[in-house]
Every structure is written in C-alpha cells, then in structure tokens.
Design goal:
five-stranded antiparallel β-sheet; about 425 residues; mainly beta; Methylamine Dehydrogenase, Chain H; 2 helices; five-stranded mixed β-sheet
C-alpha cells in the first residue's frame, strides 16, 4: 500500500486554458524552493511549518474558508507559491481518455488561474493498485519554474504561466503500484528518484533539463530523497532503498555511504533529519532506525544509532522537539519515540479508524494526521499522548494527499475536492 503513487505516464502539452491576467509569482531566490511550502512536505521536506494561526478544529460548517471541486482526481499534495496553489490531477483511465492536468489556483478563494492538460504516452497499465491513479507526484517550484515528475514520461518544467519549457526522460519502467517520489531542488539541479523507471537517482539541469548525473542501485524505493546539511557547509542527499539507507553527494551523484536497515522490503516513507542524523521508517513488516550522516562506505557498525521494530509502510514521520512521531497506515496507531535512543514513549490508537496514507505535518506544536476517509486527528506534540481534536471532511471521498500549510491556512485535497481550512 503506497501513498502518493503516480502511474508512470507520458506527457504531451495541450493548450487548454489561459491565465487570468495576474502576474506570475516571482520569489527572490531561484536557488531554493519558491516559498515555505513549495515542495513535498514543505521546508526541507520535513513536514514542519514555522508559521502560526492554523486551526485545530474544523468541519464542513466550521473554519472552512473554501471548498472547490477539482477537475480531476489525484493524490499529489498541493504546494503554495506566493498566493497560488499548484497541484496535479487526472481524468479518464488508461483504457480510455486518460489526461493529466497541472493546475494553478488562487489560495485566497480556490479559483482556477490556469490549467494545462497533459496526454500520456500509451500503452499504459490498465489500473493502479489501491486506485492511487495517475497524478500522485507533488510538484516543486523555484522562482522561474515548476517541476513535475510523471514516471516513464519523464520530468517536465513549466514557467509560472503554465508554459512547458522542457521535458527529459529518466526511464521507462512500470510498476503495478505506479510511480511516486517528488522532485528535489539543489543548487542548479532538480533531482528525481526514478527507482520504478530505471532503478536510479537522476539529476537534471534546471534550466535545460539535460542530465547531469545518474546513480544506480535504487531498488524498491518510493520515497522522496532529502537533503541533509552537515558541519562545514557540506550537504548529503539521503534516500532509503531495499535493505539500506544511502547517502550521496547531491552535486555529483557519487555514493558516499550506506547503512543496513534490517527492513526486508520496499521503502515508501520519506526520511527526516536533525543535526546530521537521519531517521527512517518503512517496510511492510515495519521497522525504523537512526543513522548519523557523514560516513564513508558501509557505516552500519559505526553510524547506526538505533533501530526499532515499529514503523509504517506508507506515511512518513515528523520530528518535533526531542521526539519522532508517526502513524501506522493500517492499524491507525500513533507512535512517539525518543530521538536519542529510539525508545517508544507511547503507541496509541487514533479514534478515526480506517487507514492513514498521507504523511502528517507539524505546526505550532501540533501534529496533523489525515486519514483516508476524511478524518484528521490533531495530536499534541509531546512525550505523552494527547488528542486535541478529530475533524471530519468529505462524503465518499478519499484523502491520500499530505496537507500543505501556509498563510495561516491548511490546504487538504481529496480525490474530488480541494479544501482550505482557516480560523475564523
């Protein structure tokens, strides 16, 4: 069961909508994501918002700023670029009329600013398991471009008016669960985990889309890599694959180190990091570990800090204070562990029931756990379990996408609607 899985598809731009005449957002620094939530899981891919003013309670009649119907289904998360929301969707199916969409919407009222429809390269697999569909990779944006990953069709760059700038293939492999992973921006590069498509990590030049480096051995990996800052100004690119966590030089793709996980299956949840230590959960059999970055070669004996036999097969963890938090995708059990030791401080079943595929976020000392059936549980971030609220949205909708946070609002999408939640 994999959250945010995108079927490998191919793109041909179709001109299907014009902008509203509003100027495209232009952030100041194109070397970094264009804003506090302009990539999967927000700042540094960690799922933590530094902003304030987010609601803790909501429903269809309370603290719902707006709700708009989406022109297509999808499980990609929205990103926030200035006053615009960007996300992907799809219509049709592989057996008839499949079209992919890139959407740009006004974050103040949800109105559509522009839409671009994208046609897949066929043939495609008839369906994606768990009905994840064909639009699950979250976009990333800088000051000049929006980057989209669409499986075997490759990586696309658009400008902020929706014009396609380039397209590059990163492989043609397919998988019954579809593809996944979201673009990561580093200096002049956009980095893609193309495990399904070519069992590799691929770095492309942001301006041209030309391949800069490719690293192999990326097997059974559906997670979005993270960038980890180390003392001395160094940065490592870290991802989890079948049986191990890997660190690479993000500028060259050169492998630096690997650590055995003892998790004997595919890896879907993205990693999180603090002070040069990465924390990882995953595998259908569930497990987790902490690894110090900065090593070379096999660092299992020297840099693995701890392991734990609890984890999640789908949703990613979050860090807050001295603890790590996550929820099991099927059991609905929320966990809290010490960062220093991995010791479990609590494991409590959330009241929502059902499954949790979306990755949680943290804001103002609160953890937001979105459930697939529309119930989001808000839990205090602390070593003792405290449920603050349980909030229901939707009617016969599926919520697989992780929330976005910004401008004092939470943005949550289902397979049918996009919701804006704000205190009022």
């Amino acid at each position: 069961m994999r959250s945010c899985l995108l079927c490998s598809v191919a793109f041909v731009i179709l001109a299907t909508g014009a902008g509203t005449g509003r100027a495209a957002f232009q952030p100041a620094n194109s070397a970094r994501p264009a804003g506090p939530w302009a990539q999967f899981r927000g700042p540094d891919g960690q799922g933590v918002s530094p902003e304030k003013g987010f609601p803790t309670q909501w429903s269809e009649s309370k603290n719902l700023a707006w709700k708009v119907a989406l022109p297509g289904a999808g499980t990609s998360s929205p990103i926030l670029v200035g006053d615009r929301l960007l996300l992907t969707a799809y219509t049709g199916s592989a057996t008839g009329g499949l079209q992919l969409q890139v959407l740009c919407m006004n974050s103040e009222d949800g109105k559509l600013i522009w839409k671009r429809e994208v046609a897949p390269q066929l043939p495609e697999q008839d369906r994606i398991r768990e009905d994840h569909g064909w639009a699950s990779s979250t976009l990333a944006a800088d000051a000049e471009r929006i980057y989209a990953f669409f499986g075997k069709s490759g990586v696309y760059a658009f400008d902020h008016a929706g014009k396609q700038l380039w397209r590059t293939s990163v492989g043609t492999g397919l998988n019954g669960w579809g593809s996944s992973n979201s673009p990561v921006l580093y200096r002049n590069l956009v980095i893609i985990n193309a495990s399904v498509e070519s069992e590799s990590l691929v770095a492309l030049d942001r301006q041209t889309g030309k391949e800069v480096w490719r690293a192999g051995g990326i097997k059974e990996s559906w997670n979005t890599p993270i960038l980890v800052s180390l003392p001395g100004g160094k940065t490592e690119l870290v991802t989890a694959v079948f049986g191990k966590v890997m660190g690479l030089d993000p500028g060259t793709g050169q492998p630096l180190w690997s650590c055995t996980t003892e998790i004997p299956w595919y890896m879907v949840p993205s990693l999180v990091a603090r002070n040069g230590v990465v924390y990882c959960i995953g595998g259908r059999t569930a497990g987790g570990l902490a690894v110090r970055c900065g090593g070379r070669g096999d660092v299992t004996a020297t840099h693995r800090v701890w392991t734990v036999r609890k984890g999640s097969n789908v949703s990613s963890p979050v860090l807050y204070g001295d603890h790590m938090y996550w929820v099991h995708e099927n059991l609905g059990i929320a966990y809290c562990a010490e960062l220093s030791s991995g010791k479990l401080l609590y494991e409590e079943r959330l009241p929502a029931g059902g499954q949790f595929y979306a990755s949680p976020i943290v804001a103002e000392g609160r953890i937001y756990y979105p459930g697939r059936m529309g119930t989001t549980c808000v839990v205090a971030a602390g070593p003792r379990f405290q449920l603050l609220s349980s909030n229901q949205l939707g009617n016969r909708e599926v919520f697989n996408a992780s929330p976005a946070a910004g401008r004092g609002k939470l943005f949550l999408r289902s397979d049918r609607f996009l919701y804006c939640l704000g205190t009022r």
